[in-house]
Write a structure and sequence with these properties.
The protein has 116 residues and is α+β, with helices and mostly antiparallel strands. 29% of the residues lie in helices and 16% in strands.
Length: 116
Amino acid sequence: MNTNQAKKAQMHGKDWDGRDVSGWWASEKLDGCRAYWDGSNLYTKEGNPINLPRIAQQLPAGFALDGELWAGRNNLQTARIATQYGKDDPRVQFVAFDAPGVAAAWPDRLAAAARA
């Protein structure tokens, strides 16, 4: 995956500045590092590979997920070191917030991610 492919895969929205957002869905932004699972490999939002075999083995083969690596509240540094250097820590987990390959509305994609 190159940088442009990674960025495109993770860009789900548009600039909605000034628009009425009542009735929209939102998810919490965790204090972690953005990560994209393409079904076989894990990447940063810039398209750089993330070397965390423990995490990769837990993710569904052949099913893309967008999310972040998170080590719990106030542990951004732990998640960053794992993402950047592949230094695993048992607190680090992949938290999915979208299944971009599922052709459905976001709540249904989120449900599909939870089932994967």
